[in-house]
Design brief:
heterodimer, A: 268 residues, alpha/beta, Rossmann fold, six-stranded mixed sheet, four-stranded antiparallel sheet, 11 helices, globular, B: 272 residues, mainly alpha, MetI-like fold, 2 domains, 2 strands
Chain lengths: 268, 272
C-alpha cells in the first residue's frame, strides 16, 4: 500500500506537464457503513488529459468517481476521511455549494439514463435549472450535441422523446447533457458498457475531441479501452490504488506484480 | 385436472365481478333513464324533490367534490413527497404511514361526526360546502397519499441521481424529475377520490346538510346527489326521482372517469 504514495512522484518525473494539477486526492478513505470501499488513496489528476481508473469489480472505481462530485452524499450511511482538492479547494468543505460543484464536475453513468422527456429537454435540463433563458438554451443545446457528435443524427427531431434513440445515441445524449453544463471535469463510469463496438468507437472519438478542453476521468469497460484512449492510468484493487502512471508504462512495464497479473489477464 | 378446475374457478371469479356490475348498472339505468330529460338537469327540485329536477344537487355535488380535491391533493401529494424524498425510513415516517393507514380504515360516518363537531360546530362554519368539502378532504387524503407514494416508488433511482448530478437541488429534482413521472399515478388517486367523494352520503349529510336551495357561496348548505337519492328513497318521497338521481350519479362518475382517462392517455403518449 506504500506504492500508491511513491508512484505519483515517479510518474510525474516522466511527464513534462506535471506541474499543473486539477484534482489532488490526499489520504482519501471511504466507507459504506462498515464496508471499506477506498483505502488511503493518493492521486493527482492533471488537466486536459484522460485519466483512466481500472481494476476488477468492487475495487472502488465507481466510489472514487462518485466521491469527486459528491454523488456519494445521496447514499445513507457513508463516511470518508482525507481530502479531495479541486483547483486547490476542498470539495468537502462545509461551505462548498453542491450544485456548483456538480456543474463543474460532470458525471456520465454506466448505463444510458435519458430522462423521459424530449431530446432537447434532456440536454437543456442542467442549464434550465441554473436559470438560463430560452434563447440561450437553443445555442447551448446545439453546441453540446455537436461536441458529443450527436447533432447530425438528431437535429431534425429534437422534440421527440429521448427514449426512442438507440443505446449508443442515448449515451452520447447523456454526454451532451453533461457538456451542456460547461463543466471543467468529466467523470465517465464505464460509458460504453452497454454499447456495440461502433458506438463505442464514436464515443471514444468524442472523448479525444473533448480532451482538449476538459479534464477527463474514465472508468473503462475493459483494459483495451483504457490502453486506447488514456494518457495516464491507475490500477485499483480492493479499494487500494496499486499503481499509477503514464498509460504505456502501466501496460508494458507495470511496477507491481498485481498490476502485471491483471494487465496480462492472469486474473480479473 | 387441477388445471381445468383452477381455470374454471378463476373464470367464474372474473365473471361474477362483471355480472354484479352489469346487474347494478342495468337496474339503476332501467329505472332511471326514462326520467332523464333535459329539464331534469336544468331545474332544481320542487316540493321536497317530488317534482322538478336535480340541478341544485348536481351543483352541490360538484362544488363539494371540487373543494375536497383542491384541499386534499396538495396535502396528499406533499405528504407523499415528504415520505419518499425528504425522509428515510425512520420512526417519523413509520408514524405518518401508520396514521394514514388508520385514516383509510375509519368508517365514513366517523369522519362525518368529526366534521360535524369540528368544522360545523367548533369552527362555526355551519352546514356548508366548506365543512363538507374539508371533511371529505380528510377522508380521501389516505387514498391520494398512498397512490402518490406508489407512483413515486416506481420512479427509477437513476432519475434522481441524474438530476442531482446535473446540479439539481432537491426541490428541482422533485419538480422536474419526480413529479412529471408520478403524475399518472397521482391522477389515478384523484380519480378514485372523486368517485368516493361523489358517492359519499353519511359524512356529507352531517357536515353539508340537506338543503335543496341553490348554493350561493362556500358557506351555503347543500344537498348532494347521493344524499338526495338517500332521502328520496328512505322517506318514500319518489322512487322515480330517486332512480333518476342514481342514474345521473352513475353517468357522472363514468363521465369523469372517461374524461380523466382520456387526458391521462394523451399525457402519457405525449411524453413517450
Amino acid at each position: 500500500m506504500d506504492y500508491s504514495i511513491g508512484m505519483s512522484v515517479i510518474g510525474a518525473e516522466k511527464d513534462s506537464m506535471s506541474q499543473e494539477k486539477k484534482i489532488i486526492i490526499k489520504n482519501f478513505t471511504f466507507h459504506y457503513n462498515s464496508l471499506q470501499a477506498l483505502r488511503n488513496i493518493n492521486l493527482d489528476i492533471q488537466p486536459r488529459q484522460i485519466f483512466t481508473i481500472f481494476g476488477p469489480a468492487r475495487s472502488g472505481k465507481t466510489t472514487l468517481l462518485k466521491s469527486l462530485n459528491r454523488l456519494t452524499d445521496l447514499i445513507f450511511g457513508t463516511r470518508h476521511a482525507g481530502t479531495i482538492l479541486l483547483d486547490e479547494k476542498d470539495i468537502y468543505d462545509p461551505k462548498q455549494n453542491l450544485t456548483q460543484l456538480r456543474r463543474r464536475v460532470g458525471f456520465v453513468f454506466d448505463l444510458p439514463t435519458p430522462l423521459p422527456m424530449s431530446i432537447f429537454d434532456n440536454v437543456a435540463y442542467g442549464p434550465k435549472l441554473s436559470g438560463k433563458t430560452k434563447k440561450c438554451l437553443n445555442e447551448m443545446v446545439e453546441k453540446a450535441l455537436r461536441s458529443a457528435v450527436l447533432w447530425e443524427e438528431v437535429k431534425d427531431r429534437l422534440q421527440t422523446s429521448a427514449l426512442r434513440l438507440s443505446g449508443g445515441q442515448q449515451q452520447r445524449l447523456c454526454i451532451a447533457r453533461v457538456l451542456a453544463l460547461e463543466p471543467e471535469v468529466l467523470l465517465l463510469d464505464e460509458p460504453c458498457s452497454g454499447l456495440d463496438p461502433i458506438s463505442t468507437a464514436s464515443i471514444e472519438e468524442t472523448l479525444f475531441q473533448l480532451k482538449k478542453d476538459y479534464t477527463i476521468i474514465l472508468v473503462p469497460h475493459n483494459i483495451q479501452q483504457a490502453s486506447r484512449v488514456a494518457d495516464r492510468a491507475g490500477f485499483f484493487l480492493n479499494g487500494d490504488l496499486v499503481e499509477e502512471g503514464p498509460v504505456y508504462q502501466i501496460f508494458t512495464k507495470p511496477r507491481d506484480k498485481r498490476t502485471e497479473d491483471y494487465v496480462t489477464g492472469r486474473f480479473g | 385436472m387441477t388445471q381445468s378446475i383452477a381455470k374454471i374457478l378463476i373464470w367464474m371469479a372474473a365473471l361474477s365481478t362483471i355480472v354484479v356490475m352489469v346487474l347494478i348498472l342495468f337496474q339503476i339505468l332501467r329505472e332511471g333513464l326514462p326520467i332523464l330529460h333535459l329539464r331534469f338537469f336544468l331545474e332544481s327540485p320542487k316540493s321536497m324533490g317530488r317534482e322538478g329536477g336535480i340541478l341544485s344537487t348536481m351543483i352541490g355535488t360538484i362544488a363539494l367534490t371540487a373543494v375536497a380535491i383542491i384541499f386534499a391533493t396538495p396535502l396528499g401529494v406533499g405528504t407523499a413527497i415528504f415520505l419518499r424524498e425528504y425522509t428515510r425510513e425512520s420512526r417519523i415516517s413509520r408514524i405518518i404511514r401508520f396514521g394514514t393507514d388508520c385514516l383509510a380504515g375509519v368508517p365514513s360516518i366517523i369522519f362525518g361526526l368529526f366534521g360535524f363537531v369540528f368544522f360545523v360546530i367548533y369552527l362555526n362554519m355551519g352546514w356548508s360546502i366548506l365543512s363538507g368539502g374539508l371533511t371529505l378532504a380528510a377522508m380521501i387524503l389516505p387514498t391520494i397519499i398512498c397512490t402518490t407514494e406508489e407512483a413515486i416508488k416506481t420512479i427509477p433511482y437513476s432519475y434522481r441521481e441524474v438530476s442531482y448530478s446535473l446540479g439539481g437541488t432537491k426541490w428541482q429534482t422533485v419538480i422536474h424529475a419526480i413529479l412529471p413521472n408520478a403524475l399518472p399515478g397521482i391522477f389515478t388517486g384523484i380519480i378514485l377520490s372523486v368517485g368516493r367523494s361523489i358517492g359519499e352520503t353519511a359524512a356529507v349529510i352531517l357536515t353539508a346538510g340537506s338543503s335543496l336551495v341553490m348554493p350561493t357561496s362556500l358557506f351555503s348548505p347543500i344537498r348532494t346527489m347521493a344524499v338526495h337519492f338517500y332521502i328520496l328513497a328512505r322517506e318514500g318521497i319518489s322512487m322515480e326521482m330517486a332512480y333518476g338521481t342514481g342514474a345521473t350519479l352513475i353517468l357522472l362518475v363514468l363521465f369523469v372517469n372517461t374524461v380523466a382517462n382520456g387526458l391521462l392517455n394523451r399525457y402519457v403518449r405525449h411524453r413517450s
